[in-house]
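Lecture notes, unit on binding sites. The following record was shown on slide 14. It pairs a sequence with calcium ion.
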Amino acid sequence: MATISKAVVAVLILFEQYCVNFAEWNTRDYMKKEHSLVKPYVGTPWDFVGSTMLTNNYIRLTSDHQSMKGGLWNQHPVLVRDWELHIQFKVHGKGTNLFGDGFAIWYTKERLTMGDVFGSKNFFHGLAIFMDTYSNHNGPHNHLHPYISAMVDNGTMGYDHDADGTHTELAGCEALFRNLAYDTYVAVRYSDDTLTVSTDINNKGGWKECFTVKGVHLPTGYYLGFSAATGQLADNHDIISAKFYELETERKDDGVDYSKIEPSAQFFASPRDHVDDAKGAFMLNSLSGWKLLVVIILIIIGIGVCLMVGFIIFQKSQENSRKRFY
Ligand SMILES: *[C@@H]1O[C@H](CO)[C@@H](O)[C@H](O)[C@H]1NC(C)=O
Ligand SMILES: [Ca+2]
């Protein structure tokens, strides 16, 4: 009996590993080098501006000193409509209570711009994800910092630094990502006009959803970037890697020229329950066509194996009970 259940467990583990490996293989297949940033950054398709400093192991947007601004910008416009960006970062410094200000992840028309929004230009065109470590808000806040939020601008709204962008944010979540001893990641997924931001900051090797916002309209042809700033308060803001994946979706050609649309978003924050899921599962959504079919077939085979093993166990136990009766 014990050996059979051990065998079942072994088969299930093998099967699960196969599924995870499969999903990982899929992500690597679609990783786009021209939008990715990987060590040791030799011949990297990214440009630096301001205080940004390159080392072999990380790119430091600002060091733990006052009044710095640094940026890191991809050289190639993103021409695909559905994508996911996985960023490994590290925010750390000597301050225990006082540190700031944080960094931003950009998908904008502008690139290599310097300014007052986490080191880059205000009244931008496109998407910003703010990884805000310092609360500028005087008065009670309804959330803790560090805080992650998203904003879409068409050049008219502007980010209000003194209010931590509270009035322009699409959605946000608390994320205590600073001064951690292990690796920290954030994922930005933009697909089917839906923006999802997830984090992996608990050393669990799995993504946790921060927020999902529907009805986010962004044109193709914008640039990915990172920027950070320090003021009175400081921190090291390091980008370690960025991996860009093109997602496959099945969509009919609607005749719209997506390079011409204006960035816009419905103001619609959906506070969702935060659920941990496996790293593979987050990518599994992007499987399509025959790959999805293969995964489904594998799952069916897995279930079949379980049923067979279950049946064998059942028969054995029937035999055993019969032996006991005679
Ligand atoms: C820009 O956004 C504002 C606010 O959402 C809107 O009123 C305006 O019409 C937009 N401009 C363009 C050119 O889309
Ligand atoms: Ca702030």
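Take-home: The chain has two domains: 28-279, 289-324.
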